[in-house]
Amino acid sequence: MSISPQAPFALMDEPFDRPEWQARLGELAGSVRLEWQRYAEQAVLTAALAAEVPAPDGGDWRHRLSWSSFVREIAVARRCSDQAAGKEIYLAVALVRTHRRTLSLLQAGLLPLWNAKVLIEECVGCDPAVAAAVEAELAELACQLTPGRIRAAVRKIELRL
Question: How far is CA 40 from CA 67, 84, 93, 97, 99, in A?
């Protein structure tokens, strides 16, 4: 008796075509989009809180202490390390101040969160004009690109400008 190469797969019960399975998969996709939107809400709130704390580079030791306390408060609220909280604060402020189109795409649930973070992180240290050009050229495209392609596209824009 010979078994065709397809036989083991033919015996498996495939759930992919069942409407209830597809509906649950759709629920999962919807909840992921809600996470992107919640992140955008949290970023706006974090940036607003950060705007109320004196900048740590003001020279006054009390400003540095206030900023350190703020980072610690965010770390406790987000249940993460101070270093991770500092990064989240930076991303939130950059998203709200510099990457307004990226923020609106996140709020609409169109841009994957990881893609948004990559876009923002790749603009760290860029001249504001370069960051604006990246935002204008890539924000919408980033909805469909992989993180690696986003990084490459940002580098091309940086080199061009």
Answer: 22, 17, 11, 13, 12
Tell me the whole-structure pTM to 2 decimals: 0.84
Cα(157)–Cα(42) distance, integer angstroms? 29
**Dihedral sign of CA atoms 153, 154, 159, 161 in order:** positive
Q: Which of 87, 103, 92 is nearest to 135 (CA)?
A: 103
DSSP state of 161: -
**For residues 98 and 125, what is the distance between their CA atoms, to the nearest angstrom?**
12
Q: Which two tokens stand for residue 59?
A: 């020279």
How far is C-alpha 137 from the chain's CA centre?
A: 17
Distances in whole angstroms, Cα of residue 42 to Cα of each of 66, 118, 123, 144: 21, 18, 21, 23
Contacts of 41 (CB under 8 A, 6+ apart): 107
Query: For residue range 129-146, what is the model confidence (pLDDT) as tens digits?
Result: 999 999 999 999 999 999
